[in-house]
Amino acid sequence: MIVGAGRSGNTLFRRLLMERSPLYIPPETYVLGKIADLRLSARGIGWASTVDLMLATLEYHPEFTTFDTANLRDLALEAKGWPEVDRTVNTLLLALYRTLAKNCESDAIYYGDKTPLNTMNLHRIAPFFPDARYVYLLRDGVDVAKSYVDAGIYPDISSAAKRWRDSVRHWESFRVGIGSARYVEIRYEDLVKNPESEIRNVIFHLGLPVRDSVIDVSACLGDVDKLAHHENVARPPFSGSIGKGRVRMTPNEARQVRPILNRFLKRYGYDRV
Length: 273
What we know:
Elements: E1 2-3, H1 10-20, E2 23-24, H2 32-41, H3 47-59, H4 73-80, H5 89-103, E3 110-111, H6 122-125, E4 134-138, H7 141-150, H8 157-175, E5 183-187, H9 188-193, H10 195-206, H11 244-248, H12 251-267
Parallel strand pairs: 1-4, 2-3, 4-5
């Protein structure tokens, strides 16, 4: 699971990883936190209704179109016929990732997720994937906050800065309970400067197989050509965005983010505002 604040190279990292390892990572799912809530609130409704509820939560999300899949009807029908031992939300979610991979003709033998929002819900999502490994992507919070606003994802710099800060806080809380063997942390700045080295290190740390050669995974990216804020993902990694937010940040914006970011920027070795 690739986590961290948005605008931190998550989608770029996803592409690079899929190109070099037999791994499928779909467009952002957004709904795993909601599914975790539904699993608790909808107890006792029966397996068939659980399947309908869980899959509809994803299919009816506004960005389901990024999956290039008409609907999840076939998976729903299949899941309703599973033997009792397989009738769990955990198994259903794994089957969902396999189905999405198959639909884009991926050769994956491992599956992942790349949704920054998951960072805020890791304690609730983790039970779905008891053997999961995690990659946390960290980027200068000033650059992230400015990029969030420029992309129209957040309306003001303070809200964007708080999202970066809260992502850091949630990750710090979560990683304490999973052990260092189950996660690796990388920085956006290192990824775009030395992509091959960083990807090799992550693949080794996670114990993933390496492809004989880099392949084209554009057919499985889905959201990259549909969402404007992912427009740079298809290009080769470049370091031109490092420090860009700091350069473009106005004095007024700097005053707003200073009390939000500085403590955490210092903790991770970034210059304070």
